[in-house]
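U., I forgot to send this yesterday:
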Amino acid sequence: MPFLFVSHHSAIEAIRTQGISHPRWPESPRFLPVFGECVCSQRDFVAFSREVDLAELGIGSRPVDVLVPTTQYRHKGKGILTHPWRNLLPKESFLRIANNVLVSSPEFALLQLSNVHVRRDPALDRSLARYREERDALKSIGIDEFPPVENLYPWEQELALVKVAQIAMELCGTYRLPANPEEETSYGRPRLTTVDATKTFLAAIPGSNGYKHTGAPRNLAKVLNWVMERSRSPRETALALMLTLPLELGGYGLPQPALNQSLEEASVLDVQPDLLWKDARLVVEYDSSEFHADAGADKVDSDIVRANRLRAAGYTVLEVTPGIVSNPQWLEALASQIAGLLGVSIPPADYSIKVRRALLHKELFFS
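Result:
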């Protein structure tokens, strides 16, 4: 039976359920097996699926992302979407989750996802549609003027990397998004990778066939600069990114906090604030009812006790709810409060930044 090399989003899907406690492969850098030894076509995949239940391995979505050895086998169909990989595979870049099924490691999958290509025409069409919507909105209130023209194509390239950062923060965090939208996010899970582990993997990529000269390694290095480890929920990830991403992406450009880091003071030794700016002794506590829905009044009481202990230890504590982060105006007020307490300023947003901030907010909190 040939081998199936699962990559990209399909690898992330499998890792979410399978974890990383599987044998690593290969032992040293090598090329993918040749045609006949790995699944390269829809026909191969159909035959392979008769022998192996991929759903039991956490690979339920279709098409399945699959690595193939040459561009000759580039193909997209109902069963698989192939991704040519002609260069050396990095050492231990796969997890063998079944005898003939190997999935990209968290670090390798993040590298693959960082090789983004946003199609220009659809992006420009979306920019034009937004322009028309804004002009119609102005006319509806009696303003017969042309709104500024904003080409969002370069920004959408960056937005694709923000999505990779969200996945990276999940893998470096303690929650797992469900593969099936009907299922629920799970919490309190072990971390699957770290920023340092991903940087180490990135530095060790073989230079074969010029892969180091593609955009993926450079893009992933940029993404890792945005990633904060130990996030406990998707909303915590979204809030941290919104506050700290660069201004040109629509973020507020604030210094990065530590997430869920234990404090050293004896009086709060067992407290791990959601967002902590240690030097400023500033804490932002996010309402965690989304992943403690069954805790009821006891959880509310414990949150208050926790916040009071932090205040008594000399920390400024700002409390945030889902309603606050969902409201762009309230979230902007929160960002301004944090900036003031940190002693930094957020530059006034021009039209371009306001558009990107609104779109980034929608992407992070409502996608």
